[in-house]
Design a protein that fits this description.
single chain; Serine Threonine Protein Phosphatase 5, Tetratricopeptide repeat; 5-stranded parallel β-sheet; 516 residues; Rossmann fold; 9 strands; alpha/beta; 9% strand
């Protein structure tokens, strides 16, 4: 039976092979080879969650079997569980210090654990043993990127491509790096070549989307952005709802369900399209995080429901960040850049009653960190601890400014060390954040949901941006955003140069060119 299953597996008949493995394991549940081969099959078919228990049992049955341990490590990494993957790679290396794949997987797991220096050492050892290991070279470059050693990373990516010109992984990663370095035309050329060689490789399409959007090419960018739904990193976040997908056609008389995705700031940014659906005669319903309902529920002609509730009846549905494509958005046709949300007057009055009122002083809100779960949070948020206090000292030195914390989450407690007033009661719902913002003269924020709320309200907001910003802020040196008229962008002039960006903002506060 096992021989027949192996033959089917080698011939690419995964379904037949899997059925035979299941039968074999029914007869002999602890048969090591059947467990191992069944796990390898599941992993090869992209079902890491199914592979892990099979491979765990295979390792338990034969602890000395390096193949089972390494495939288990691969499956765990695919399941975003790098910590237990380390134990498997280390067990193999204890038996065979020259095991190339163990070094490769060790480096990959360490990188996933945000230990890029240790990952670099492991991956260099893999390449010492096997210089033509292209994936190890790509992951080495990734570890160098994580350390912001961009020149070395580019050399490593190009070395990987020299060894395997057809490597979509190397090309997509190089394109991403070139995008981060602001070399957008080069990036798009590399990514288009990767797509031509492998039209179904989702990361290349996704990276092309980011490069094109940064360059302001919305047509190319939002078309390629649809590939996020096929990207391994994101596709688990998408729900394939029943019924037709809305393609931007006439919505008159129809209920259009809009399914929020990605971060809360994204939900706020793209909520601007809901009134546009209503203006065309449609009935938009937004399904989003419960904390946003109080803020977004006031959009004209719109209904907002919690994602953890029961969905209402609808005629068609669409993922929220597909709306710019459905509306064929260009930089000149972005809806409601002047603002489209309004804070609740009663909440505004409540905040005004709590805050000091001195017309001679400016009240400015401050948010210094985004969601720590964001993949780029280390670059977009300001550093923590003493570094944060030193970095923001030029802003806190103004004697006529009262700083009000708009920070939530694990870093909200840093308000005390900054000498910044924390709101009482603490901010929980975005309706309260919006109302507090409405009482202020301005807001200073990193790239976070707070910046989007301020922009959506039409409130003055200075946004501190990293050198390689998210695509929505564009790659030009412009201080303005086509998405929000009330925002002013203060960009790092070089990677990590927060002090320069803060210094430019401090000068604007000093000469009162912001807020205006």
């Amino acid at each position: 039976m096992l021989l027949d299953a192996i033959a089917h597996q080698r011939a690419g008949r995964a379904g037949q092979a899997a059925a035979l493995y299941r039968t074999a394991l029914t007869i002999a549940p602890d048969q090591p080879q059947a467990l191992y081969l069944a796990g390898v099959l599941e992993l090869g078919e992209g079902r890491a969650a199914a592979a892990v228990p099979l491979l765990r049992r295979a390792v338990a049955a034969r602890p000395e079997h390096d193949g089972a341990a390494l495939h288990l490590a691969r499956a765990l990494i695919a399941m975003q569980a790098p910590e237990p993957a380390l134990a498997q790679t280390m067990a193999v290396l204890a038996r065979d210090p020259a095991a190339v794949e163990a070094w490769f997987l060790l480096g990959t797991a360490l990188a996933a654990l945000a230990r890029p220096d240790a990952a670099e050492a492991a991956l260099r050892q893999a390449l010492h043993l096997a210089p033509d290991h292209v994936s190890a070279r790509v992951n080495l470059a990734n570890a160098l990127v994580d350390q912001e050693r961009w020149d070395e990373a580019e050399i490593a990516y190009r070395a990987a491509l020299a060894r395997d010109p057809a490597s979509g992984e190397a090309a997509a990663s190089l394109g991403c790096l070139l995008t981060a370095r602001g070399r957008l035309n080069e990036a798009m050329a590399v990514l288009r070549a990767a797509i031509a060689a492998n039209p179904g490789f989702a990361p290349a399409h996704w990276n092309l989307a980011e490069a094109a959007l940064l360059a302001g090419d919305f047509a190319t960018g939002f078309n390629a952005y649809e590939w996020r739904k096929r990207h391994d990193r994101f596709r688990a976040d998408f729900v394939d709802l029943p019924g037709p997908v809305w393609d931007g056609g006439d919505p008159a008389g129809r209920t259009i369900l809009v399914h929020a995705e990605q971060g809360l700031g994204d939900t706020v940014q793209f909520a601007r399209y809901l009134p546009a659906i209503a203006a065309r005669g449609g009935r938009p319903v937004l399904v989003c995080d419960r904390t946003l309902i109080g803020l977004l529920g006031g959009l004209a002609g719109c209904h907002v429901v919690a994602r953890d509730g029961v969905l209402p009846r609808y005629d068609a549905w669409i993922d929220q960040m597909s709306l710019p494509r459905a509306f064929a958005t260009t930089a000149q046709t972005i809806p409601a850049a002047c603002g489209y949300l309004h804070a609740d007057p009663a909440r505004i009055a409540a905040w005004r009653a709590r805050l000091p009122a001195d017309p001679a002083r400016r009240r400015i809100g401050l948010c210094w960190a985004g969601n720590p779960a964001h993949s780029n949070d280390a670059r977009r948020s300001l550093p923590a601890g003493a570094a944060l206090v030193a970095l923001l000292a030029p802003l806190r030195a103004f004697p006529d400014i009262d700083w009000i914390s708009l920070q939530v989450g694990p870093r909200a407690a840093e308000a005390a060390s900054l000498g910044v007033s924390a709101p009482d009661p603490p901010l929980v719902e975005y309706a309260d954040t919006a109302a507090l913002i409405a009482t202020l003269d301005g807001v200073v924020s990193v790239d976070s949901s707070v910046a989007h709320v301020a922009g959506a309200l039409g409130s003055a907001c200075a946004v501190l941006l990293p050198f390689a910003p998210d695509w929505r802020w564009l790659a030009s040196a412009a201080e303005t955003s086509p998405w929000y008229d009330s925002l002013r962008l203060f960009r790092q002039p070089a990677p990590g140069a927060w002090a320069a960006a803060v210094g430019t903002l401090a000068a604007a506060l000093q000469n009162r060119s912001w807020p205006v």
